[in-house]
Amino acid sequence: MTRSSKFSDEFKRDAVAQLTERGCRVMEVSERLGVSASSLYAWKKKFAKAPSGAAA
Q1: pTM of the model
Q2: Structural domains of the chain, count
Q3: Which of 14, 30, 44, 47: CA 20 to 30 A from 54?
Q4: 55 in a domain, yes or no?
Q5: 39, 49 contact by CB (below 8 A)
Q6: 36: left (phi over 0), alpha (psi -120 to 50) or beta
């Protein structure tokens, strides 16, 4: 049984882009978006490797 995420992949990729492309700090993005820092680190690990538009 898989757990459904309340955040879309697009939302997650945008959050990762704020970290990697815009140079924002994890805590800043975490507070602004209302997600945990650990989620941001997990999304960064998942999406930073995948080419843009590719399924991870």
Answers
A1: 0.76
A2: 1
A3: 30
A4: no
A5: no
A6: beta
